[in-house]
Specification:
Elements: E1 2-8, E2 13-19, E3 25-29, H1 35-45, E4 48-53, H2 59-62, H3 65-72, E5 75-78, H4 83-97, E6 109-110, E7 116-119, E8 122-128, E9 137-141, E10 146-150, E11 153-154, E12 157-158, H5 168-179, E13 187-190, E14 196-197, H6 198-204, H7 210-218
Parallel strand pairs: 3-4, 4-5, 5-6, 10-13
Antiparallel strand pairs: 1-2, 2-3, 7-8, 8-9, 9-10, 11-12, 13-14
Helix pairs in contact: 5-7
Length: 222
């Protein structure tokens, strides 16, 4: 599987095109904005994008979904708990960027904990990691030893937990049980910023300590 990466939009979202060259099928993760830029990449690769599979539905991760759908016919997939967040995306885009996004795109089917998406010979395991948003999910390619983690964890940080629907203790617990449970060499592709690894975050991320996990359970911060 070939992985193509773009940084899109004013909030610099990491968008990924996963392309199986044998079947020519492709999935698109988090088309946050700059639909023209994304469509140029799709045209350059010749990929047939069949699914748009988002990690979550904050506006900066979904703005290009309608235009990419219109151009490719791809279906759109989220966790069901993200539907309220998707419903607020237009208002958030207006407040942050001053744009009228229009109606939110329809979701074709929901993704849940334990689901597996197959792209050619590659299998992507779905894990539910709420906290940054209620329906945040990650995609794990065990054969490739890598995961697309959205805004759950960043290099040296975690996703914000001060928006509606956020839950700091749930995010900390999810990071520990669903991400730090992976081997240290797994590469992590966050929704913003540089790529990292499980081992690097385990060693150096201040939010990835057992002390923070224990404090979060008790309702404390760092």
């Amino acid at each position: 599987m070939n992985v193509h990466h773009l940084v899109v939009g004013m909030l610099k979202v990491n968008c990924f095109l996963l392309h199986d060259p044998e079947s020519n099928e492709a999935f698109l993760i988090d088309p946050g904005d700059d639909a023209d830029k994304i469509l140029r990449l799709i045209e350059q690769t010749g990929a047939n994008v069949t699914r748009i599979t988002n990690t979550h539905a904050h506006f900066d991760h979904v703005l290009a979904v309608p235009d990419v759908q219109a151009a490719t016919g791809a279906t759109f997939h989220l966790h069901e708990d993200e539907m309220p967040v998707l419903g607020w995306a237009g208002d958030a885009a207006a407040a942050w960027l001053g744009i009228d996004w229009g109606p939110a795109p329809a979701v074709d089917s929901y993704l849940s904990q334990g689901d597996v998406l197959r792209l050619g010979e590659t299998s992507l395991e779905i894990r539910h990691v709420p906290g940054h948003s209620p329906g945040s999910i990650i995609y794990i390619d065990h054969a490739g030893r890598r995961a697309w983690v959205g805004d759950t964890v960043f290099a040296g940080a975690i996703g914000r937990t001060d928006f509606p629907g956020c839950d700091f203790p749930a995010l900390i617990e999810g990071i520990h049980t669903q991400i730090l449970s992976l081997p240290n060499d797994y590469e992590l592709y966050p929704g913003h910023g540089p790529f990292t690894t499980v081992g690097r975050e385990r060693r150096s991320n201040p939010f990835c300590t057992e002390r923070v996990r224990a404090n979060a359970v008790r309702g404390f911060g760092l």
